[in-house]
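During the second year of the project, the team shifted from modelling isolated chains to modelling whole assemblies. The rationale, set out in the original proposal, was that interfaces cannot be judged from single-chain predictions alone. As a representative example for this report, we include one of the complexes processed in the last quarter. Its constituent sequences, exactly as entered into the pipeline, are reproduced here:
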Amino acid sequence: MTATLQTRPTVAAPVVHDLPKLDPQQLRVEQCRTLDTPRRRYSLAARLLFVGMDLMYGRKRTLDKFRVLEIVARVPYQTWETVTYKQITKRHRRPLDIRRLWDRVLEFRTQQDNEQWHLLILAELVAREGKPATLRSKLWYDLLPRLIAFGYWHVAWLLYALKPTWSHRLNADFEDHAEHEYAQLVTEHPEWESTPYFSVVAEEYGTFDCLADLFRQIGHDERVHKQESEQHL
Ligand SMILES: [Fe+2]
Ligand SMILES: [Fe+2]
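Output from the structure prediction step:
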């Protein structure tokens, strides 16, 4: 074992600890690129998920609906991290395996933390709309997303435990869908080009000239998430 540890192993993919932040011009270019790129051929499971979301929350793109999507978006990364830690426990006598798995955990956590920023930003924007809380909104936008996240956690965990590529494929579809939905959302709101954006709780995510640029950046993040998952296919 000592001989194999004389040199550091080359990991398959570089570990990304942060996602790229683009300037306003780059953001516009990348939004157009997304709109010009056809969507992935979604799996049946992904299509059922998207249709289910449309049935529950409507086809209209609203901030409320995107907040629900962001609650669900973190889930696969959480399951992958959990499963990978268990694999580390199992292979604790093999340092090279531990290193490879640890790099994977860091990658998953980076994506998960990025999704957490998205959720924080959406939660703040929705709260700013100041809609009154009704019984329906509490059921639909508080309770139901938690149930969806609970169910999705088990699906993602099971897929990853059985065959990791199945879970990565489902996530790549989910992220591709999110990337396109955010790009479309920006085109539907030309007024956002001149709406200033500021945040009290998510300042560290970045500063943007306008609300449209914020959502262009989030959409680009979703593309990076998709590409990370595609690397595992
Ligand atoms: Fe997201
Ligand atoms: Fe994402």
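Residues 73, 115, 175, 178, 222, 225 surround fe (ii) ion (ligand 2) (CB under 6 Å). The chain has one domain: 43-231.
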